[in-house]
Design goal:
By secondary structure, this protein is mainly α. 79% of the residues lie in helices and 0% in strands. Helix 1 runs antiparallel to helix 2. The radius of gyration is 19 Å and the shape is elongated.
Length: 94
Amino acid sequence: MAEDKPDIAWRVIGGLVGMATAWGMRKLLGFVWVKATGKEPPLDDDSPEVGMGEAIGYAILTGVGMSVAQIVVNRTAKKRYDAWKSVKQVSQGH
């Protein structure tokens, strides 16, 4: 039963890290979009005011940017969590 607690802890930590990463990347990608295009990111891809190229470009930017960020952050957080878990187990004599 002791092995279930770290899994639950990781799920909570992973979920929080994922939400924070998504929020931060959305802000960063919006900033990058404004600097690159001089326009606010398209919020409604179906709007006739948003050109097809602009909608696709922003979709590609956000899709790739979010995926890369999630991979990097999740792997880094998991490594640190596993290292912390190992140290904790050693200090407890497991």
